[in-house]
Design a protein that fits this description.
With 686 residues, the protein is α/β, with parallel strands linked by helices. Helices cover 50% and strands 10% of the residues. It is built from 26 helices and 13 strands. It has helices at 8-37, 40-47, 54-64, 82-89, 106-120, 146-156, 163-176, 178-191, 204-239, 249-268, 282-296, 313-328, 352-363, 390-395, 399-402, 405-410, 416-429, 461-476, 478-490, 503-506, 513-529, 539-550, 565-582, 622-630, 658-662, 672-683, and strands spanning 67-69, 96-100, 124-130, 133-140, 301-303, 335-339, 367-372, 379-386, 437-438, 602-607, 615-620, 641-644, 650-653. The strands form four sheets. The chain has a five-stranded mixed beta sheet, sandwiched between helices. A four-stranded mixed beta sheet has the order 1-2-3-4, with helices on both faces. Strands 10-11 form a two-stranded antiparallel sheet. α4 (82-89) links the parallel β1 and β2. α12 (313-328) runs parallel beside α17 (416-429) and α22 packs across α26 (672-683). The termini are far apart.
Length: 686
């Protein structure tokens, strides 16, 4: 039947529709098959929303509340302090948006505020605060002297003023208006150009010094009065001159002096806290763990939304694929990746082991927990219930994965995508155990209110009493003391190791080769001499054996030319640790800031570069720990630096120089046991 011209367009449309339907059915069948074979986890990943950028997430939080306090700094800025920031923000006279986040560079802070403002779509005064104070402040579309107020805050207040006091001073300057704020900023800059304001708080070491001085004065001054008065009385009795003083006067004066000192000391040393930080509540300390645990139930990769994004979509998809493949293979299991910063101010005090244990306990899901910190790029892995040896994960994981090296340190994302991919390859090849393995329980976190100072009449007060009594006796026996001291100085001194308690104050940061040779020989000879029974194979024998391996079994090689500085430092560390084991005073850790400082008291995330916010979790001695808490920027100056031949013998941190990275010294931050194993591996001894 012929088709008329008017029906041709209609016929063409019908034919096109039929073709489209056929194409839909042809493509729907493979898609349906793929959907049938997809795992539930993969389907959940496909339905999950795209990763939210840091700025978008923070803008959403400010849309809900103009003051957002992170849950990542409970030990310094608990979330329960948010009402205090909100109360102060209302005094500015303009819409004010406050973000309290972990520290970042000034450039990152400025860019973040601009991005959050664009996402929020509202004008106002935007303020970024970290654990030390106000980092950045910018006014968008409102009249507020943000720059002047920021200048006043930085110049008028000391470093330890704290975020809340800093924001209070900032708000006061904003409320003064543009002209007065500018004038005050100029005055502050001129007044404190060469000298910073005095600190508001003291540290635990300062309180110990106060207690020590109080104890010295409390016994030293009264005893000095008694001894000097007794000497004067004997002189008068011998000469027969002068009026006789009643016997009760001198003891009474001594008692009154002691009472006055006991009453005056708490008034003079009236500090009770070492920081402006408010004590966190239990909810403050558990908020971040709850958030991460809830996130892991939706996605095995939890990227902290408050931190810069370190994995792009392609890297995130590949990581999901490799986690899925690892879980499906025989003998494997789930892998959970926690892209969450680990700072000393967090609930776990920067201890990734403690953080992983808390998240595992909350999530109640066994598997491998990978803690990848987006702020410093460190990667740690912990086993909860998989058939993989937890010790192999801790000690055999390459440093290129754990720390990443210099190239990762220079990258904004610390090459975490590439290194996590290498980690999954390492897990694929890791041998399996007969039964599931579990991490041991980590050490307990520091107490929640760690900033409360001990009482004045505690800690070093009792030693101060004895020192004060001794000092009073020395005054009455000055001649004997001078003679004893003179004889001591003239007597020839045999080589002897320096006392351990003095090492953090006397050990050099850039030691000469002659110093290292002399010290290594002295320490090694002393350790050998302290072995009374050569057949006694105690733990200290492992230290001596490893030290002797480094010098080829000959102690004289320690002071001979040709031994590199890194090896000499390793000999010193092993010898000192061996002597500590013999005396029963060893915890197996050496200061990772400067191994010449001797034993460590704890692990701490410390700043290892003068620029940026690069941090490393290192064991630290007590002075280095105090420096890391009170003045984090002082740690880079305390790092042990050794000559690096590849850089023209310029000095670099000991764990970065070629001799150290190729030799056993790089194992020092992981403990003495790891150092011994590394020495034996290098020497081919099992």
């Amino acid at each position: 039947m012929p088709v008329c011209n008017s029906d041709r367009p209609r016929l063409l449309r019908v034919l096109l529709a039929l073709c489209a339907v056929a194409a839909v059915f042809a493509t729907a069948t493979p898609a349906a098959r793929a959907a049938e074979t997809a795992t539930p986890a993969r389907a959940a990943e496909a339905d999950a929303p795209a990763p939210v950028t840091q700025a978008a997430h923070l803008a959403d939080r400010l849309r809900e509340n103009p003051v957002h306090v992170t849950d990542q700094l409970p030990r310094e800025i608990p979330r329960s302090t948010a009402p205090g920031f909100a109360r102060l923000a209302k005094k500015t006279g303009v819409p004010t948006y406050v973000l309290v986040l972990p520290s970042q560079s000034s450039t990152q802070a400025r860019q973040l505020l601009g991005a959050v403002h664009d996402r929020l779509g509202r004008d106002g005064l935007f303020v970024l605060i970290d654990e030390s104070g106000i980092t950045e402040a910018t006014a968008y579309g409102v009249r507020a002297p943000a720059d002047a107020a920021l200048t006043v805050t930085r110049y008028e207040l000391p470093y330890d003023a704290g975020p809340l006091l800093s924001f209070e001073r900032f708000v006061d300057v904003i409320a003064q208006g543009g002209k007065k704020a500018t004038a005050r900023a100029e005055a502050a800059r001129e007044t404190y150009r060469d000298e910073e304001p005095a600190d508001l708080y003291i540290g635990p070491s300062d309180r110990q010094n106060q207690s020590f001085v109080t104890g010295i004065l409390l016994t030293g001054m009264p005893l000095t009065i008694l001894l000097v008065a007794g000497f004067a009385r004997r002189r008068r009795r011998r000469s027969g001159a002068g009026r006789r003083v009643p016997r009760w006067v001198v003891p009474g004066a001594a008692v009154l002096t002691a009472a006055a000192l006991a009453l005056a000391a708490p008034v003079v040393f009236d500090q009770t806290r070492s920081s402006a930080a408010k004590p966190p509540t239990p909810a403050d300390l558990s908020a971040r763990v709850d958030r991460v645990a809830a996130g892991l139930k939706k996605d095995p990769v939890y990227a902290d939304p408050e931190s810069p994004r370190v994995l792009d979509s392609r890297q995130l998809d590949r990581l999901h694929d490799r986690i899925r493949d690892f879980r499906r293979s025989d003998g494997r299991g789930p892998v959970y990746v926690l892209l969450v910063p680990q700072t000393p101010e967090s609930e776990s005090a920067g201890d990734s082991w403690l953080f992983a244990a808390a998240v595992h306990a909350k999530a109640r899901q066994d598997g491998l927990y990978v803690v990848a910190a987006p702020d410093d790029g460190t990667i740690d892995i912990y086993n909860y219930g998989l058939r993989i040896d937890a010790d192999r994960l801790s000690f055999d994981l390459p440093d290129a994965v754990t720390f990443g090296g210099s190239r990762a340190g220079q990258a904004d994302d610390h090459l975490l995508g590439e290194r996590l991919d290498k980690l999954m390859t390492f897990l694929d090849k890791a041998p399996r155990t007969d039964r599931p393995d579990f991490e041991s329980a980590p050490a307990a976190a520091p107490k929640a209110d760690e900033h409360t100072l001990p009482p004045l009449f505690a800690t070093d007060f009792l030693p101060g009493l004895f020192v004060g009594a001794f000092a009073a006796l020395v005054v009455s026996a000055a001649v004997a003391g001078v003679m004893w001291t003179g004889g001591r100085l003239l007597r020839p001194r045999d080589p002897a190791p320096e006392p351990t308690d003095r090492l953090p104050f006397t050990a050099p940061t850039e030691p000469s080769t002659s110093y290292l040779r002399r010290t290594a020989y002295t320490e090694l000879i002393t350790l050998i001499g302290e072995f009374t029974d050569p057949d006694d194979r105690t733990l200290a024998w492992d230290h001596l054996d490893a030290a002797m391996l480094l010098v080829d079994g000959d102690p004289d090689r320690a002071r001979a030319s040709g031994t590199d500085p890194a090896t000499l430092v390793a000999v010193i560390v092993l010898a000192r640790a061996g002597r500590a084991v013999l005396t029963g005073d060893s915890d197996g850790l050496c200061c990772g800031v400067n191994p010449l400082h001797g034993p460590a008291v704890s692990r701490h995330h410390v700043r290892v570069a003068t620029e940026g916010v690069a941090r490393r979790l290192l064991p630290v001695c007590e002075p280095c720990r105090d420096t890391a808490i009170a003045e984090p920027s002082g740690i880079p100056g305390r790092l042990l630096r050794l000559p690096d031949p590849s850089l023209g013998n310029s000095r670099v941190p000991y764990y970065d120089c070629d001799d150290a990275t190729d030799g056993p010294l790089a194992a020092v931050p992981h403990g003495i046991a790891r150092l011994i194993d590394k020495v034996r591996e290098t020497a081919g001894v099992h």
